[in-house]
Amino acid sequence: MLSDYTPAPTLATKDLASAREFYEGVLGCTPMTDVAGGVMYSAGASQFLVYPSSFAGTNKATYMAFQVPAEAFDSEVDALRAKGIEFQTFEYPDVSWSNGVATMGEQRAVWFADPDGNIINLETPA
């Protein structure tokens, strides 16, 4: 069954050099290997692919989420802000916002976009 395998998110980019600068320089992700026109990155116990596509950034939903322990959340948010990341906010029931950070019960989260508009989420576990 597919549930036995770890999924690898795939993120499209219109400019692979710019995407590499963002994922490696801003987010600090480590490239594993170049593959068929793209780059496979490692992140935690998983991996994700960034690849060229003319359809980059056309989805308006979250492409990829990073689960961060609650005790590390604020320092990760501060590090992203220091690198110029701007967080997105939106209307959603039972969510309160403070300085771009969403709180939903005990869970906290932020959303931001890569250079192509792919939406990335950083959140504490539910």
How would you portray this structure in words?
By secondary structure, this protein is α+β, with helices and mostly antiparallel strands. It is 19% helix and 38% strand. The protein folds into 2 domains: 1-52, 2,3-Dihydroxybiphenyl 1,2-Dioxygenase, domain 1, CATH 3.10.180.10; 59-126, 2,3-Dihydroxybiphenyl 1,2-Dioxygenase, domain 1. The chain has helices spanning 16-26, 70-82; strands at 10-13, 30-35, 38-43, 46-52, 62-67, 96-98, 101-104, 107-113, 119-123. A hairpin with a 2-residue loop joins strand 3 (38-43) and strand 4. It is globular and about 40 Å long.
The CATH architecture category of the largest domain equals Roll
Beta-strand content = 35-45%
The named CATH superfamily of the largest domain? 2,3-Dihydroxybiphenyl 1,2-Dioxygenase, domain 1
CATH fold assignment of the largest domain: 2,3-Dihydroxybiphenyl 1,2-Dioxygenase, domain 1
Helix count, per DSSP? 2
Average pLDDT across residues? 93
Portion in helices: 10-25%
Overall SS class: alpha+beta
| Count of strand segments | 9
The general outline is globular
* Residue runs with pLDDT of under 50 for 5 or more positions: none
The CATH class name of the largest domain reads Alpha Beta
Q: Note the gap between the termini.
A: 26 Å
Order of helices and strands: EHEEEEHEEEE
Largest sheet: 5 strands, mixed
Any descriptors?
126 residues; alpha+beta; 2,3-Dihydroxybiphenyl 1,2-Dioxygenase, domain 1; 2 domains; 5-stranded mixed beta sheet; 4-stranded mixed beta sheet; 2 helices
Summarize the structure.
The protein is an alpha+beta fold.
